Amino acid sequence: MASELTYRGGAASPSAGAAGAAGEYSSPKPASSKPLAWLPRAARYAAAEHRPLFALVGMLVAAAIFCLAAPSGSGSGTAAPYSSSGRVSGALTRFSVDPAAHNPGRQFVAGKVPLGLKRKGLRVLVTGGAGFVGSHLVDRLVARGDSVIVVDNLFTGRKENVMHHFGNPNFEMIRHDVVEPILLEVDQIYHLACPASPVHYKYNPVKTIKTNVVGTLNMLGLAKRIGARFLLTSTSEVYGDPLQHPQVETYWGNVNPIGVRSCYDEGKRTAETLTMDYHRGANLEVRIARIFNTYGPRMCIDDGRVVSNFVAQALRKEPLTVYGDGKQTRSFQYVSDLVESFTAKYLGC
Ligand SMILES: O=c1ccn([C@@H]2O[C@H](COP(=O)(O)OP(=O)(O)O[C@H]3OC[C@@H](O)[C@H](O)[C@H]3O)[C@@H](O)[C@H]2O)c(=O)[nH]1
User: pTM here?
Assistant: First the structure.
């Protein structure tokens, strides 16, 4: 080591010169007699003792192991048809073509879900999923194999509506108010969260319109951020006191902006506006379902809507209370028909 330092320093360095002169630190063999002395030291080290040859052999062995370990469908000859057809043959390009088209007799193995395993379900968020309609939707989504997250503040929703899913690894419930933002990773968002019966939404009108506006804004923002498909559950009440019967989708309604039902009517109208603005402005894939009067199991006895009121009164053998002149009309639907429309019509699943 000392000799190397002495040599590179050369005679220009007085201290090196001194060391060289003393002779005790100099190499016994003159540096000029070394083979490949003109190479830098690192290259000389690599070249010594046939190291390049060993490195080359090592690379060949590694390449051979890599080829043998590749999936049988690709390693045992599937590459040949692609290269012969002029395609670039490689691990990635093999997934972008249909091997059966090239070689119908051979089964393509790599990249396929093994037989017996079901296709992975969607990740779905249902806001208001513990409510009357929401819980039926959750049942349907879980049954078709989706992973469902319910977000509900349990104002009108009830834990009992979804308790039968507790323990299912594909089900999760978060007690949360959509008025506050939340970040989740899902493929689809069904936004149902809002009290829907007049007695409930009139109980705290400011909270009702906040839920419809701020809550919907939060969920649309989430959908935009994660690229999820979005379904807004709106209401027949966006038509207000309609002057047209039955109401067609193109009818704009006859709504009182300052009435006692306005927190819900106008709240849902704003929610629809936001949904369409996100669709037009952010290219979000959206659906809007204007739900008419729905009835069925899990409806609260004190829900306040006409069907539950009439049934409860009939059970108690009380006279039915008819508001107004009784000439008003409604379109009624059973809850399973509604849920069917969400999954079949609106989301195409
Ligand atoms: O005990 C009752 C209850 C209600 N009614 C009348 O029955 C009609 C239906 O009223 P409901 O309270 O059931 O509810 P509405 O049809 O007005 O709206 C309801 O259904 C549609 C949903 O989108 C709304 O969210 C929900 O409020 C109204 O004309 C109401 O005045 C009665 O005559 N007696």
Answer: 0.69
